[in-house]
Write a structure and sequence with these properties.
3'-5' exonuclease. It catalyses: ATP + H2O = ADP + phosphate + H(+). This is 3'-5' exonuclease DinG. It is an enzyme of class 3 (hydrolase). Among the domains are: 167 residues, Ribonuclease H-like superfamily/Ribonuclease H (Nucleotidyltransferase, domain 5), CATH 3.30.420; 184 residues, no CATH class; 216 residues, Rossmann fold, CATH 3.40.50. The strands form five sheets. The protein has a seven-stranded parallel beta sheet with strand order 10-11-9-12-18-8-19, with helices on both faces. Strands 22-23-21-24-25-20-26 form a seven-stranded parallel beta sheet, with helices on both faces. Strands 3-2-1-4-5 form a five-stranded mixed beta sheet, with helices on both faces. The termini are far apart. It is built from 37 helices and 26 strands. The chain is 47% helix and 14% strand. It is of the alpha/beta class.
């Protein structure tokens, strides 16, 4: 088989917009070896845009004497004859080449095509990026001149050979199922797959960890637990053997330096375990808190034969624990212990449902087909079935909802699929584990569902604990939104549509089948109509309220709190009536499902599959009925805060309804703290000043059963950080918002000149961020800095962070979520700007409701709620800058209140002692220049 790899450099992204080819690189592969290469420059007969020249290194003078494309077209066509065309993003290269060929009188190419982007996604689904430069680094492929055509073609050729090799190692069943999907993929793989299937027809796959069941090949193995062991040392001796200067950590790391705070944290946790007390431990950045809490957890679990739980907020920290800290401790500790990761059902693939979708599901949607192909390869490699291991296309996550273990209920332990269930495997591992790592979301779900999801435990360590109150409140509350409700209705479908209801209906033989189909169709049609009407009414109602004083979320959504007096308004009473009608439509659908279930008559032996499908549909409809009642009824046992959000940027009806308890503390006290022996909360931000009183009150922990400990960071902040506060900024209080934002932008650009960009700017409002983003781009004369703005630049928080780190001179603008959890170590981040102190807007629905409740109790909402929240968030923001002992940087705070207001000292007292400069902006920039470059 002959393959020709091509890569083009062009004057633009589209031939339809007068884009021209300026260079081609071609690499010929035969018998899996590179046989020849060709490269040629072309005169595009038009100027090359400057940014293309900067990217490729090809300038006008270099192509001035080059041939035109037509001069080389015949030779190019000859090389491509009777071959596969391979390209990285083949649609672009082949499309461009065909446009040039046909416009010069040559026939369009009809070759079979393979896209190495698509094939890489399928065969290596765990890679975080599929850019050619990233793949070249990942596979260690030589790349002498990136963005030049021959170099890129050569690397793509090497990549293709890697991909072909991987394809050759897949099991027969996987290749067979891929071949069933091949015609809907962009790559022409049929001949390659057919040849390989013929070779494998009578061979067994050599990997005995690969299971083969009902035409599916997948990896699934029960890890054997080691022998039970004990640590025959007192806890003090155990810590000595690890932490002391000649201990296990020193032997593992040549540069190890004992950290007093790390040992103090381990001792405090063990004391809490021994005394069956709860604990709050604030550990400054650099303490090494993961190891500090893992060591007492392992000692307690192994010596006392009891299971411990560790809960984190981010998957990033879970990965760090599992991939870095746990392997290190298994290496240095002379004892055996088992660790398991446990997540919610929606994270795990259900192989039975996946097989059903492969054999009977629709293949119309490209994202769905690509996702099926990705999952087919992934299940031959994963040991967990946890979807967080891989990258799916955008639509792939919608498909995954159909095949996740979320709908896995009442699974028969005698069924073979029970033993081939990733979720059940995770549960078995968790049951046998000494330590279970989970997340706050599943911990709270378990707590509020009578502890039905996690194996029993009495001791738990909650890392990133400043998120726990918010997570618990969200999980006790609810969320309803138009898009999800309509998606559910469309997913269920009518009796005539090729959707979920028709799938279960066609399995029944009963006289009243048509009558039930008609009842279902009428109910779902009415439901979809009333969902539309209900959310449209809420949208109009919210937009008519508080015309000049609407709260906005950190992403710019309009927010409106549903207050007790709201229920007296005619529009809201109409919404209540609509919600009641919608609940009735859902009940009619449930009645149809109940009748189908009670008259079940299988025609194809797939009884269990259809009963599960019905149970899944019933769950969705019953949940909506309950949520609608909770959201629209006036009286509740627990006082709930309810609010609506309108996304003005989104499609029509981007309306969201939320509720959460006004005070989660009594609920946690009853459902959590009273039932567990020891709950350890740890974070870098738990105190205001030196007091834990705010967090204790918010979480409902009793003082008489509590240990507290503050551990300072080992970093030398006085040498690593300079804090600058300008005296000459406009006063935002008196309506000078535009002047203030202009001053912020001037300071950003002046400071960026000192630090060469590498700056994170934190805002407290999305509106201010948008204005600053626009203004910064206007103010830059030569566009020397790349501006990346949350909510403006597309991409998730992690994607924006990666983009920021990939540029030499970039400025990253973020709102609420960027104040914490963004880790940008080293020289990638040298300056942190805070536009305003992070006070919650007074009209934010949750804050407004809690504030009102405090006033009624005779308390001061500012001192008891607003200020502590702002100080904790300020500490989180400050913590973004210094992530290691080698980091240096400047913090610039535009809000003069930190020096002039009586409460300003609470902010400064909450962070480590650093040099504070309070001066004019001009003087501050001189200070920054002198210090930063010393």
């Amino acid at each position: 088989m002959k393959y020709v790899v091509i890569d083009l450099e062009t004057t633009g992204n589209s031939p339809a917009k007068a884009g021209k080819i300026i260079e081609i690189g071609m690499v010929v592969i035969e018998n899996d070896e590179i046989k020849e290469t060709k490269t040629a420059l072309f005169n595009p007969n038009q100027p090359i845009p400057p940014f293309i020249s900067q990217l490729t290194g090809i300038y006008d003078e270099e192509v001035a004497d080059a041939p035109f494309f037509i001069d080389e077209a015949e030779e190019i066509s000859g090389i491509l004859q009777d071959s596969y065309i391979i390209a990285h993003n083949a649609t672009f290269d082949v499309g461009f080449l065909n446009t040039e060929l046909t416009s010069n009188g040559f026939p369009a190419l009809k070759n079979r095509v393979i896209d190495t982007v698509e094939l890489s996604r399928i065969l290596f689904p765990g890679i975080s990026s599929y850019k050619l430069s990233y793949l070249a680094t990942y596979f260690e492929l030589y790349h002498d001149d990136p963005h030049r055509a021959l170099s890129d073609a050569y690397v793509t050729a090497k990549l293709f050979l890697k991909l072909k090799e991987k394809l050759g190692h897949l099991p027969y069943e996987t290749l067979y199922k891929l071949n069933m999907l091949e015609d809907k993929l962009q790559s022409d793989l049929a001949a390659i797959l057919d040849d390989r299937l013929e070779e494998l027809a009578f061979q067994e796959h050599p990997d005995d960890q690969i299971k083969h069941y009902q035409g599916l090949a997948f990896r699934m193995s029960e890890k054997k637990n080691g022998d039970d062991s004990r640590i025959d040392l007192s806890f003090g001796e155990y810590l000595d053997a690890i932490y002391q200067e000649q201990g296990a950590l020193a032997q593992a790391f040549a540069s190890y330096e004992p950290r007093e705070g790390q040992r103090q944290m381990s001792e405090t946790i063990y004391d809490a375990f021994s005394a069956k007390k709860h604990a709050f431990i604030e550990a400054g950045t650099g303490t090494g808190k993961s190891l500090a809490y893992l060591l007492p957890a392992i000692y307690q679990a192994v010596n006392h034969r009891e299971r411990l739980l560790i809960s984190t907020y981010t998957t990033q920290l879970q990965s760090q624990l599992l991939e870095e800290e746990i392997p290190l401790l298994k290496k240095i500790l002379d004892t055996h212990f088992n660790v398991a990761l446990m997540k919610g059902k929606n994270h795990y693939l259900n192989l039975e449902k996946f097989l059903y979708e492969l054999d009977y599901g629709s293949n119309d949607n490209y994202d769905f087909v690509l996702t099926k192909a990705i999952l087919l390869v992934w299940i031959t490699e994963t040991e967990t079935g946890d979807i967080d291991e891989i990258q799916l296309p955008a639509g792939g996550y919608i498909f995954f909802q159909k095949v996740s273990a979320d709908a896995e209920r009442n699974i028969n332990p005698k069924s073979p699929w029970f033993h081939h269930s990733y979720y059940q495997l995770a549960r078995r591992r968790a049951q046998k584990a000494d330590i279970i790592i989970t997340n706050h979301a599943l911990l709270c779900t378990d707590m509020f569902n009578d502890y039905a999801f996690l194996p029993s435990y009495q001791k738990v360590i909650i890392d990133e604990a400043h998120h726990f109150e918010e997570t618990a409140s969200h999980h006790y509350g609810l969320k309803l939104d138009y898009i999800q409700m309509q998606f559910t209705c469309n997913y269920l479908g009518t009796a005539e549509e090729d959707k979920q209801f028709r799938t279960v209906l066609k399995a029944f033989n009963m006289e009243q089948k048509q009558k039930l189909a008609d009842q279902w169709n009428a109910a779902i049609k009415e439901a979809k109509y009333d969902i539309d009407e209900l959310f449209h009414l809420i949208e109009r109602f919210v937009m008519s309220q508080q015309k000049n004083d609407k709260a906005t979320s950190d992403l710019g959504r309009v927010q409106y709190r549903i207050k007790p007096e709201t229920y007296q308004q005619d529009s809201w009473q109409l919404a209540q009536d609509m919600a009641a009608r919608l609940r009735m439509h859902f009940q009619k659908q449930l009645d149809v499902l109940f009748q189908l279930k009670s008259h079940y008559s299988s025609t194809n032996g797939d009884e269990k599959q259809f009963l599960e499908e019905i149970a899944q549909m019933q769950d969705a409809l019953e949940n909506y009925r309950e949520d609608l009642q909770m959201m629209f009824q006036e009286e509740n046992e627990v006082t709930l805060i309810k609010w609506a959000e309108i996304d003005l940027k989104g499609s029509h009806h981007s309306v969201f309804l939320y509720s959460e308890p006004s005070d989660i503390a009594p609920i946690l006290a009853e459902d959590f703290f009273s039932k567990k022996n020891s709950v350890i909360f740890t974070s870098a931000t738990l105190t205001m000043g030196s007091s834990f009183s705010f967090i204790k009150e918010r979480l409902g922990v009793s003082e008489d059963n509590l240990l507290t400990k503050q551990i300072a960071s080992p970093f030398h902040y006085d040498k690593q950080v300079q804090l600058l506060i300008p005296t000459d900024f406009p006063d935002i209080k008196h309506g000078n918002m535009d002047d203030f934002v202009y001053a912020v932008c001037e300071a950003i650009l002046s400071l960026a000149d000192v630090t060469s960009g590498r700056m994170l700017v934190l805002f407290t409002s999305y509106d201010m961020l948008k204005k600053a983003n626009h203004l910064l781009k206007e103010m830059m004369t030569d566009q020397q800095y790349v501006i990346i703005a949350q909510g403006v630049t597309s991409g998730s928080r992690s994607r924006l962070k990666k983009n920021f780190q990939s540029y030499d001179q970039a400025i990253l603008l973020g709102t609420s979520s960027f104040w914490e959890g963004v880790d940008i170590p080293g020289e990638d981040l040298s300056a942190l700007v805070m536009a305003r102190l992070p006070f919650q807007p007074p009209n934010h629905p949750v804050f407004e409701a809690k504030s009102h409740q405090m006033k009624e109790e005779g308390r001061n909402p500012f001192m008891d709620l607003s200020l502590p929240q702002a100080v904790l968030k300020f500490k989180q923001g400050f913590g973004r800058l210094i992530r290691s002992s080698d980091d240096r940087g400047i913090v610039f705070i535009c809000d003069v209140r930190i020096k002039t207001a009586r409460y300003g000292k609470y902010f400064l007292d909450s962070i480590p002692d650093v040099p504070v400069h309070y001066d004019t902006t001009n003087h501050l920039m001189n200070t920054a220049e002198n210090w930063f470059h010393q």
